[in-house]
Amino acid sequence: MVAQNISFGVIAFVMAVSAIKVVTTRNVVHAALWLVLVLAGAAGQYILLAAEFVAATQVLVYIGAIVVLFLFGTMLTRARIGRTEAVGNRQWGTALFVAVVLAGTLGYTLIDAFRGEKLPESVDVTSNTHRVSDVIFGTYLLPFWALSVVLLAVLIGAIVLARRE
Amino acid sequence: MLLNQFLLLGAFLFCTGVYGVLARRNAVLVLMSIELILNSVNINLLAFAMRNGNLDGQVFALFIIAIAAAEVGVGLAMVLLIYRNRRSIALDELDALKG
Amino acid sequence: MLRNGWIIPLLPVAAFWLILFVGKRLPRKGAELGILATGGSLVLSFVAAYQWIDRVTGAEGGDHGGTEHALRAIGRSILPMAEEAHGAVVEPVIRTFTWWQSGGVEFTFGTHMDGLSVMMIVVVGIISLLVQIYSTEYMKGDEREVHYFAALNLFTAGMLIMAVAPNTVQLLLGWEIMGLCSFMLIGHWWEEKKNSDAAMKAFFTTRTGDIGLLVGISILFFAAGNTFDIVTLNERALAGEIGDTALFLGALALFVAVIGKSGQFPLHTWLPDAMAGPTPVSSIIHAATMVVAGVYLVARLYGVFWEAFDIADGGSNLIAIIGAITIVIAALLAFVQSDIKKVLAYSTISQLGYMVMGLGVGGWTAAVFHLFTHAFFKCLLFLGAGSISHSGSHHSFDMKRDMGGLRKAMPVTFWTFIIGTAALTGFPLTAGFFSKDEIIATAGQGGYDFFAWVGLAGAVLTAAYMTRVIYLTFFGEPRGAAAHHHPHESPKAITVPLMVLAALSLGAGFLNAVMFDIHKFQEWVEPTFAFPGVTHPEFEVGELVLALIAIAIGYGASYAYYWRGVGQGRFVERNALARGGYRILENKYYLDWLYEQVVVAGIKGPIAKAAYWINQYVIDAVVNALGIASREGGRWVYRNLDQRVVDGAVNGAGFTAGGSGAVLRKVQTGKVQQYGALLFGAAAVSGLVLVIVV
């Protein structure tokens, strides 16, 4: 119990700092790397939440593919590697205000709503993947197929969009 | 573990992502901020999945990951196109629809 | 027919319209329709007359079968028998139809059949029919023959409408129709200026009189308690229910109309000039029917006039005076005319003077009887003059230049003309003898002695000037056209009407031969309902003798002058007084000069100019000032209100819209992040608010 809480706290702290770094750093590549940290931290949280399969998928897909995509995109769009000037735009003040207000509202609401709710202690961790697959190919079969169609569409679409004439 | 701690973490990540979407000039950085938001949502879902004791939240999170990947792919393709057309991916220079 | 008398005027009206539309295509140019209609109207008038006579004679006791009784009554009248006194009151047959109602006043149209109207429609029918038959020959080949017959029928209709009018409004209608038709017919050959001038003169002079008619009708309407009905007017006048002044003024106004229409002094000047029209027109309109409309008016509303002018008391009154003056001055003027139609015109004026004077002295029956007989012999004389000009003097009416010795060439015309003259002058036993002498007798016996003498003087003059005409036309050597153009007798269409009229001129008098104690005319025609108590003259031998002496003097003087040459030879040129008198007569007492140069020119000149000045400088100035004021007002409003206030508001609204748009446009930057910021910002804030509030 205590171990979980401590690990949560550490990972959460790392994630928070990394997230702030993502949105404030002037270096695009650095932002991508900070993003990796966030995503990794998220995977850790998933394990704490007894969602191993999701954690594994997160690492594979997000960190493995998406961040790579980001780096490719950065490279292809000739974004300066190294410091760039003025990565933040003119309305960062408004954005900050909005974010703070949003955070405040959300925070207040959450604390007010779920004060002191505990997560269940004993979770059937074994064969999580098994059970997840049961649910996917059982209840959520149609969304799964739709998802595969979406992926196909995205694949073709991205190729079409980005090809050179 | 409290439910709230996960939810608050998710809320924090969400707000950070919102700030990033609104305040970053580089289109790629905006996409990264969107990823932050999606991840916060995932944490939220999984926390509730554990609380409720069923796996629907996990399945949903999986779908979100897949969709996020797809979306990043298309988004970057569009960013590439914009870069080809305008030689720049600074979002505040895209004001052709200015009233 | 008494109840359906409305058909009688309707037939000529229908003929008028039909002739206008189809007359051109008919062989006789519409005369057939006219003769048919008038003939039909006449037949129906005879039926009405029978029915009326029956009504009158049947009134004293029991209802007898219609026609048979009437015939018996007429048969009884041919034999001179003493008549029973009739005490019964015979009411006229009145049928009306209300065509307009407003303010409690009903305007009606209809018929009022009594002895006077029945007599009138019979006379009009006979004369109109004979004239139309005559016209088929006289007007043959005329370029406007169709319009001539149409106008003639309309005129007949107008007189018939007036004759059967139950109220003054309808009477006015008929009066005005006749005025219009006489204008149209006098000016029939309007290409010559003198003809259209004559038509205008006739129209305007009678119009002057018509003002009196309108005024009189209006005054009587109000004075008699809001009624136009003739019977009611008479009743109320006789009962003394109409105020004296109003009654007098109304009757006076009506009499002005009579003066104009019936050619009395001083409005007689149009009648001689009206001879410019075709002769049949002259005969029907100015001898036999239209001009007697004035006389008819007085006869119809006799109750009103009786009370207004106090005819019951002898002495004198305006009507009698005017009549007397007219008799004399017209007769004098007849002497200096060389145009035969003008002589007959002045003779007509003179005879109308007799009728008016007769009415003025209380001789209602005498005057109306004279109207009756005069129609026949005056029409005869005019048609005879037409016959002479048509076949004898080659369309000339100048006796001195183009006539003479025509008795051998035109025997029928000659003898009928002689008969007409005899009747006119009052030769014993002719129609005119009985009627004219009855007027003189009424005057003498009613206390109007002066007027009786005037009547006798008129008889002298009449005899004299007519004999002059006979001589100049039929005796002596043929002159001018009569000499060169082989005069011959006129065709049958002309001579037959002459003969019919001659017969009537001889026989009509016996309807009321007081001498032989025959009172048929009086019995049938004189109203017993709403009628004053007029006196009737007795037969007195002394008066008969005076009359015979008078006409003998007249005949003798002319005979001596013309046949025997007594006094001939430049009498006028030798005597200065005679010359002066002659010049006055020649200039028609300078009346025409007075009217044209003084009255008309005076109005035309200074008065018209003054009116024009007022119009231009006073009235127009006011109007222009108003116009300028409104224009300036408009300008001020435009500048200050429209430009500044209204446009200011409108422009202000526009600026506001534009300005706010320019400001608000800044939101639309086209930058996605800004939109996102707005979106999220709004969501965040509203979420916060919700959380706090809820």
How are the secondary structure elements laid out?
The complex is a heterotrimer of chains A (165), B (99) and C (694).
Chain A: H1 2-24, H2 28-48, H3 52-76, H4 92-113, H5 128-136, H6 141-162
Chain B: H1 3-23, H2 27-52, H3 56-86
Helix pairs in contact in B: 1-2, 2-3
Chain C: H1 7-22, H2 31-57, H3 66-78, E1 93-102, E2 105-113, H4 115-138, H5 145-163, H6 168-186, H7 193-223, H8 230-238, H9 244-261, H10 270-273, H11 279-288, H12 292-300, H13 302-308, H14 318-334, H15 340-360, H16 364-391, H17 399-402, H18 411-425, H19 431-445, H20 449-474, H21 480-484, H22 492-507, H23 520-525, H24 541-563, H25 571-574, H26 576-586, H27 591-665, H28 672-693
Antiparallel strand pairs in C: 1-2
Strand order, largest beta sheet of chain C = 1-2
Order of helices and strands of chain C: HHHEEHHHHHHHHHHHHHHHHHHHHHHHHH
* Quaternary: heterotrimer
Overall helicity of chain B: over 70%
Number of helices of chain B: 3
Helix content of chain C: over 70%
Could you say what the CATH architecture of chain B is? Orthogonal Bundle
Enter the CATH topology name of chain B.
Answer: Helix Hairpins
Distance between the termini of chain C: 106 Å
**Alpha carbon gyration radius of chain C:** 37 Å
Based on DSSP secondary structure assignment, what is the total number of beta strands of chain B? Answer: 0
Question: Strand content of the residues of chain C, in percent?
Answer: under 5%
Major beta sheet of chain B, specifics? Answer: none
